[in-house]
Amino acid sequence: MIEKILKAVKSSNKKRGKNITVGAVLGMLLSCTVVMGEDIIGLEITNNGSSEIKFSKDGVEFIPGKEENPNTNKEPYIDNTWKNNTYTNNTTISGKSLSGNGYGIKIDGESKKINFDFINKGAIFGESISDSNFGYGIEISNLEEGSNFNLINNGLISVIGRLGKGILISTTVGKIINIGVINERSEAETSSSYGIELNSSSKIENATNKGIINLNAVNSRGITVYSAKNRITNNGVINARATNSAYGIYTQSLNILNNNGVVNSYGDKNSRGINISLRTLESSFGYITNTGVIYGKEKGISIGSNTTVRDAYNYGIIVSGEETVLSNLTAVDSIEGKGENKILNYGLVIKNDGIIEGKSVNTEGKPIEVIIEHDSNGTKLIKEMIIENKIDTTGTDSFKGNRTDSILNALKNTYEVDDSSNITNSIINAYEETIIFTGVDKVLTLFGTFVNGGIKADTVTIKGSTGADTLILKDGTVINGKISMGTGSDNITIENGVVINGDIVMGTEKTDGAIAVDTIPDNNILTIENGVQINGALNGGIDSSEDILNFNGSSSNEEIRILHDISNFEKINIGTNVTFYENNLEVTDVENLTISKNGVLTLRIDTANGNAHALTGNTGTIKSVDGGKLLLALNGAGKTNTISFGDFVLDESLVTGHEGTYKDDVTLETTSALHSVKRTEENNEIEITAKVNLPPSLNKSYEKLNKVYKSLLNEVGNFNVVKDDNDKSMSLFLAYLNDIYAGNPYSYSSELSRKSAGMFRDIVTENQFKPNLNKWMIYGGLTHVDVGTKDTYYGKGCYTYDIGSSDIDTDSKITGAYMLGEYGVSDTLTSGVIIGGNKLKSDLSNGSKVDGSALYLGAYTKKYIGNLKVTAGAGFQYGDYDTDRLAVNKVASSTAEPVMKYSDSYNDVTYDIYLNGRYSNPMRDNFFLEPYATLSYTYVDQDGADEGNKVLAIETDSKSFDYTVGKVGVDLKKVIPHEKGKSTVSAGISYTKMLDGAEEEYITGRFKGGTDFDILVAHKNEHSIGLNAKYVLELENGALLDVKGTYSIERDSHNGSGKNRTKGEWIVGAGLGYKF
Q1: C-alpha separations of 194 from 231, 298, 939 in Å
Q2: Is the pLDDT of residue 32 over 50?
């Protein structure tokens, strides 16, 4: 009956949560508005308030690469690395918003110092699908002056939005270097694209483009500068195309500008290669040097009417598609004529796409001091070079032979390869074709040389002949533009340290509507080594030939990352580490793909788009030679997946784990530690299946975690557990499983209920007041329990790199009030009732928590036999719990949420009976020695929990717990009589032993639709020692008061796989009463 009453009271109380107010509705509508325009950020890097770096995704902080403490590592991008204060992105980071702004990466120093380097070797997407919002690749802001932050892009940054910015800087940074590709496009009617923007708040040591910036919008600006004291260097390609205005480099405030590459601006209205229009009080520009090619359809370089350029040099080519090449800037051909807004011209100035105007300084073919660059202090970096120009516009008069430390300029066909030639540490420029091969069997080797050209439509930078051409590119060489080798059996070797900013076409290239194929077979060979930066597509040509693409090793440890299409190579040989990315990349027309010794081809599978990958469009065979491996990089693969290779046949030399006898036999596997590869009956498809157990080395040591794993097999696509050198990924996955097994909040409420009932029991047994005969004594008070535990499971060394000793810390608090009424039945017998309530709370170190409340009702009787007092009682308690389980998926797949919060409410009931005896032994001077003993039995019946229908939600069964506890102790008590009553001061020690119920218990749980697993209810410590002190005041007028405190410590107990240590338990309380 009592139980039903208490349940009814709690149920009524819970109904209050169903009230809907106007404020709630308004709040909901406001929150919906925010969601509808929500900004999406792929990765956020901020300051944690103490000049330390904080990484977060979706508002949840993580610490990347913390190998010595993987429990704190919540890295959502498991392929990425954090080493030597450098964060490296090796995967895809995407911030795509349907209605708000999309940020790939957002870095906010929050006005504090941030000192680290960010390197992108993968792909970063910042996209807004809405025509009214913005897309940002990387935004950097609010770094304190003195921060040492550097950004290097070796991969792809792709931006879509009405306003798109590849890299936006509005703060103080060190170096910004783009060696990869920045692509931006927008079809919105008022769109604007910015490759790299330095706004008015920025201050930078150097911004360098050595890769490609491609823009296509209504308005486009390759590099935009609004702040002073910045240094810009372009060694790559800037292509700004627009239907309105296009600027290759646009600046309103700049100190130094160096161009050694290609700046190409093509707009239907305003189009300027470089536009300088300062808006500062000084309006004075520092330095311009050009050793490359600058093109603007309207103007090559335009200087504002209020702007003064102090120092300018042209050693390369400046071109305009119209009459005006230089605006408010005059080219002079002598040092004597140099001055403000004058550019000393050693190179060529070309108007109307082909008319050379003016003269250049006559160097008489002798070396001169060329300003290659400026350092951050404006100091000129000088190199002696020979500058030669060809004023012929027909392309029939070209440079030839070996060259060293030269700058060669011409409108087209600047250099002709008609023999075996070497060019070293030079720069070759053209508006149209730059290098052409003539004749047959010609060889050109480039050492540390820049080649700039192919700007005019339908032209290329390097053009082959109809014969067999050989091109060798060595360390330090940069090709800014397209390489097209034409017909003939050509050979290109690209060695470590080379940058290719453009496509490579080995044979005849298909044009729109053209399907003709050469009848003479051309066997082309393209060889690429480790450490090469390829910013363009690779095309073997449509000739009827056997074209070969080799990926070879070198002294560099860098893998070759393919982010752009490969086509028309009949043979591809993999002899080093190569990764084919999944971002719409296509590798087509391959007849034989061979992975040889020391070769590893990592094929990234797009599990979110039908298991698409780069190799689907082929009709040949993939095979392994001498142990070469094909690795399938899965990200979000489910329990069973079929991956098709189209008409591409998987040769028998690709051996799966199901077929190989030994580990070294396996040449076809997945990067996922949770999946296995198995062939189907078809030769062109394989089946990826989730392993039914954890790896064998784990299965025994982690039997309980294996059960959790087996239960989530249907949801295994939410995890990306890769095979890595130190099994870091597997350890993070084990930590996830361990949080469910050993850090589950549903296993902690029973202990809160046991302690809560025990607290009311102690109030009864420790109460020293006795009511008068046939009179009531009323007493009430407050009490508080504060206790923490550290539960440790498993030991280190169970796996190559495991979760180690996994500690789950808890901080528990119980705060309550009670009312006690006791009646004097006779001189030796009293009876009483107690009612009370507690607020209960446990916070777990893994972010989960349990909040609850309990109502207690008990009855007891006390018998006095001389100096002995015997108390017997029973109590009933009803508990109501709200639980939040925080699941941090540190190895989340790209389609999964890295952090999920699950909640449920459930109840339990507790029954408690006890017997206590206390003997008061009088000593002299009002001292008493009081030994005592208590025996109690507690039964807790906990309801099951159900977290609903969220992904990876769990449910638990109901569970009952039994505890039998014995407690003995002794108090030393001093009674102090005074005029209006007496005071009592006591102190003592106690020993508690859990006679039954200390062993490990398990709650049965499961993922929705999965098999059962155990949830650990921690082993209880059997032994504890308590120290207590108490002050009691009893006045003659019937007023009563007591204040008490207890501190308990427990001895570590071991049981099987774990141990439990209570950090210490504090109990404090105070009460007031009245004795009639």
Answers
A1: 18, 19, 69
A2: no
Mean pLDDT of 400-421: 95
Task: Say if residue 751 is exposed, middle or buried (CB neighbours under 10 Å; 0-12, 13-18, 19+).
Answer: buried
One-letter amino acid for residue 811 of the chain: D
Q: CB of 878 within 8 A of CB of 907?
A: yes
Say how far apart CA 188 and CA 448 lie, in whole Å.
42
Half-sphere exposure of 182 (CA within 13 A, CB side): 36
Q: Which residues are within 8 A (CB) of 319 and not within 5 positions of it... i.e. 6 or more apart?
A: 273, 293, 294, 295, 296, 300, 325, 349, 350, 351, 353, 431, 455
C-alpha–C-alpha distance, residues 846 and 1070, integer Å: 34
The pLDDT > 70 percentage for the chain reads 88
Q: Collapsing DSSP states into helix, strand and coil, what is residue 1064? A: strand
Please tell me what DSSP assigns to residue 587: B
Q: Kindly report the number of other CB atoms within 10 A of residue 808's CB atom.
A: 25
Higher pLDDT, 226 or 935: 935
Give the tokens for residue 355.
């008319």
Note whether 179 and 210 are within 8 A (CB): yes
Residues 6+ apart with CB under 8 A from 782: 815, 816, 817, 1069, 1070, 1071
- β-strand partners of 290: 259, 314
Average confidence (pLDDT) over 587-604: 93
Please report the pLDDT score of residue 697 as a whole number: 62
User: For residue 18, what is the DSSP state?
Assistant: G
Taking CA 188 as the corner, what is the angle to CA 184 and CA 191, rounded to the nearest 5 degrees? 60
Average pLDDT over residues 165-185: 90
Task: Quickly count: other Cβ atoms within 10 Å of residue 511's Cβ.
Answer: 10
For residue 323, give every residue at least 6 positions away whose Cβ sits within 8 Å of its Cβ, in sequence order, or none.
Answer: 351, 352
Q: What is the pTM of this model?
A: 0.77
Q: Which residues of 473-505 are buried (b: 16+ CB within 10 A; e: fewer)?
A: bbbbbbbbbbbbbbbbbbbbbbbbbbbbbbbbb
What is the C-alpha to C-alpha distance for residues 276 and 247, in angstroms, rounded to an integer? 10
Placement of tokens 């930066």 in the chain = 533
pLDDT, the chain, mean: 86
DSSP secondary structure, 849-874, as one string:
EEEEEEEEEEEEEEEEETTEEEEEEE
3-state DSSP assignment of residue 698 = helix
Cα separation, 478 vs 561, in Å, equals 18
Render pLDDT for 426-466 as a digit per residue (tens, 0 to 9).
Answer: 999 999 999 999 988 899 999 999 999 999 999 999 999 98
Residues in CB range of 584: below 8 A, 6 or more apart: none
CA distance 250 to 52: 35
Q: 284: pLDDT confidence band, cut at 50, 70 and 90? A: low
Of 233-237, 609-613, 894-898, the least confident: 894-898
Q: Indicate the pairing of strand 256-259 with strand 231-234.
A: parallel
Structure confidence by residue, pLDDT tens digits, 500-510: 999 999 988 76
Q: What is the mean pLDDT of residues 408-419?
A: 95
Look at the block and give the residue holding tokens 């295994």.
716
Cα angle 898, 904, 905 (rounded to 5 degrees) comes to 160
